[in-house]
């Protein structure tokens, strides 16, 4: 096959993981070209705002289920053997209320909150929590040990692995996806043989792609210093159909994430103070240990944050396409089905097959 020059556009978790996996092949010479890089905090750049964790929300029998299955073992390995990646094990409790069934959050979490989800066989300690142990209003709940990722550590770790494998990382802004194949973008100075499009929300406006099925699903969080004994997620709240309740404590001093909401179509970049109050109230109610049984005034706030999940109506796009004579492999749109699980380190086995067929 010979050496192939590949340009990966985007340095979020999807782009960096794609570049990392491709750079393991010595015949692939990878350049990562992106507008935003780890260390940046911008409303267009979703990955730094992610909690993040492995809570599979993909639907049973879909390609996303397979991607989620393939993601668990590498994450398990990172948590067990590579503490420098910022991934650690954490007990997880998922609560379901039948009255939430028609809400946006319940639709998003439909498989996650099921009493018998497809992923139950992935975890050795998966169990249903007895009804007697649940708070009033909760109809069923499950418990298992999963992982939480500190993206402030994990994203730079991915960059370090790419660099270790010989990949080159550079800033670039493209008006058209085919521009990424132009001479001078790839570090060889030659035109790229392949472009991988990992532009997330920007895929909606990037020339040559302009996928109008990609829309933001706004999430708002409060980051606090208070540790939580576990990760938590619920099927919905009493505060509105697009509001959610989840808690996760990041590895290595990353603070505890309190969320949230799922506001589809909203581009608002600034935190809503009233929503922040509701988020904190819900989280303290579901996990009193956060404040020792006291009120939200005992939460030690680090910051408020807003991120835009890159949702694609038809699900994650993993396919090849020739654009202006250049093979392009698309890998974007994971914000809905896997925004808080597999997309945080998207390990699509199918991506290798698509890339191989394109070059």
Automatic annotation (TrEMBL):
- Which positions fall inside the FAD dependent oxidoreductase domain? 6-333
Q: What is its main location?
A: other
Give the Pfam families listed for this entry: DAO
Q: Which residues make up the binding site for D-dopa?
A: 246, 309
Which InterPro entries does its entry note? DAO, FAD-dep_OxRdtase
* Listed cofactors: FAD
**Example GO biological process:** D-amino acid catabolic process
Organism's domain of life?
A: Eukaryota
Family membership, please give it. Belongs to the DAMOX/DASOX family.
List the protein's name. D-amino-acid oxidase
- Recorded source organism is Cladophialophora immunda
């Amino acid at each position: 096959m010979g050496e192939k020059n590949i340009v990966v556009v985007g340095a979020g978790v999807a782009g960096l993981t794609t570049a990392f996996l491709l750079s393991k092949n010595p015949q692939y010479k990878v350049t990562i070209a992106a507008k935003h890089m780890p260390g940046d905090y911008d409303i267009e750049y979703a990955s730094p705002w992610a909690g993040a964790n492995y809570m599979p929300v993909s639907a049973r029998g879909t390609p996303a289920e397979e991607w989620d299955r393939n993601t668990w073992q590498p994450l398990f390995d990172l948590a067990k053997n590579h503490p420098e990646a910022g991934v650690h094990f954490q007990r997880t409790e998922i609560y379901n209320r039948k009255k939430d069934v028609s809400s946006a959050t319940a639709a998003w979490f439909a498989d996650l909150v099921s009493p018998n989800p497809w992923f139950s066989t992935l975890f050795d300690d998966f169990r249903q929590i007895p009804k007697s142990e649940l708070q009033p209003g909760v109809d069923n709940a499950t418990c298992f040990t999963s992982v939480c990722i500190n993206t402030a550590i994990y994203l730079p770790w991915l960059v370090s692995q790419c660099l270790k494998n010989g990949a080159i990382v550079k800033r670039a802004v493209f008006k058209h996806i085919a521009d990424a194949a132009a001479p001078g973008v790839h570090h060889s100075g030659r035109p790229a043989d392949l472009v991988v499009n990992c532009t997330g929300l920007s895929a909606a406006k990037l020339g040559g792609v302009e996928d109008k099925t990609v829309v933001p699903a706004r999430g708002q969080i409060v980051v606090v210093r208070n540790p939580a004994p576990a990760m938590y997620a619920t099927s919905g709240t009493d505060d509105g159909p697009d509001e959610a309740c989840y808690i996760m404590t990041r590895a290595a001093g990353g603070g505890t994430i309190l969320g949230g909401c799922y506001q589809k179509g909203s581009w608002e970049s600034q935190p809503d103070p009233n929503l922040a109050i509701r988020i904190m109230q819900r989280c303290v109610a579901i996990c009193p240990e956060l404040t020792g049984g006291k009120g939200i005034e005992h939460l030690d706030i680090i910051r408020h944050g807003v991120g835009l999940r890159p949702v694609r109506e038809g699900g994650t796009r993993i396919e090849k396409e020739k654009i202006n004579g250049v093979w392009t492999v698309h890998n974007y749109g994971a914000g809905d089905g896997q925004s808080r699980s597999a997309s945080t380190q998207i390990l699509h086995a199918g991506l290798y097959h698509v890339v191989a067929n394109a070059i």
